[in-house]
Amino acid sequence: MERSVSNNFNKAVFNQALLGFLDASPTPFHAVQQMTDLLDLSGFQALDERTVWQLAPGAGYYTVRNGSSIIAWRQPTDYKGFSKGFRFTGAHTDSPCLKVKPQPEMLRQGYFQLGVEVYGGVLLNPWFDRDLSLAGRVTVRDTQGQLVSHLINFDKPVAIIPSLAIHLDREANSARSINAQTFLPPILGQLTSKADFRALLKQHLTDQGVDNLDAVLDYELAFYDCNKAALVGLDQEFICSARLDNLLSCFIGLQALLASAAGPGQVLICNDHEEVGSASACGAQGPLLSQWLERVLPAEVNRYEVLANSLFISADNAHGVHPNFADRHDDNHGPQLNKGPVIKINANQRYASNSETSALFRHLAEQVGVPVQSFVVRSDQGCGSTIGPIVATETGIPTVDVGVPQFAMHSIRETAGSDDARNLARILQGFYQTETL
């Protein structure tokens, strides 16, 4: 894996690296592993939360919590640099999906199935008739009685959720609703007796070279689409993949950080559990960022001065205007793919952008020649949210919500523009290297 795609963010190289990152990251655990591999190759030092940290000016570090959230940063080049504040980029590692239940085994009509739980606001219809695989984290007890966790990825089609034929559901195209409990259990094969799922996991780990296994005790596993990320369109105008929301922003932020030279404090935080409210030990509403601030800011530095001089760019994808459903957007706020990243604004504070932070982002974009769009939800519709308002509320850091426009948010396969990710990375690289905000 390359250290970074390039300081110039060549479009072809950037997008090919992005496709590889998406394919290798079927779960938040795998995404964070990919990110730590890149950070290691770039000379960043891993820090364990259970130890004392010794931090050097200008050096790069990262720390991981729960295997699914990460903070990566460069220290300011000198202590005077703290007064200039930190440049934060925030994203999230999780995506809506179907997670395997703790006791999932089902045997119905001779078919072996697994019970699943819906994670986040899943767009369910696209999950039918897909080649599905299974990935996540498995915690085992070894033959010495030690508990050890392993990442697991079957990395091949192992399941499918077949649709009911139109002949048996004549209203499927006009009035179909999906029962998450009864419609969604994937089929993994045909058996005469119910299989032990934990035994199957143990065998898979053994086949992958994990030795000295005693028992699989627990797991966090999710199904995912085996279809690879791809460039699509007559001129490859689009990127299509699972989990663009929000692995796209994780990759963008990481590449911007790796391509930046040391200077002011530069931070990338990617939290898990945004899709379910962010309330967890490693979520944005949890203590991860505040505890990191306590450890990184030295005693002689006024923390509130540092935060007041900082900016947090919350990067999470935006709704591009769909040509078949243009009426779902405000007439003046329909972002188009490949027309630049989007500033997201909401009068009811579902986004944290204000006139000052939005103006600063526009200014940063102008410095690198990247156009910017705006998104405001229709006044007769509800608005989603991001980690931006949570961070602003918890820390007081000035915050702006931005994102790459996309189609089919929360589908099993989403679409974004092939220019937009690279252009947002260019803005974030300039942001990381800006001496004064």
TrEMBL record:
The protein's Enzyme Commission number: 3.4.11.-
InterPro entries found in the cross-reference section: Peptidase_M18, Peptidase_M18_dom2
A GO biological process held by the record: proteolysis
Cofactor: Zn(2+)
SUPFAM superfamilies from the UniProt entry: Aminopeptidase/glucanase lid domain, Zn-dependent exopeptidases
Protein name: M18 family aminopeptidase
GO MF annotation list: aminopeptidase activity; metallopeptidase activity; zinc ion binding
A cellular component term, taken from the record's GO annotations: cytoplasm
Homology family: Belongs to the peptidase M18 family.
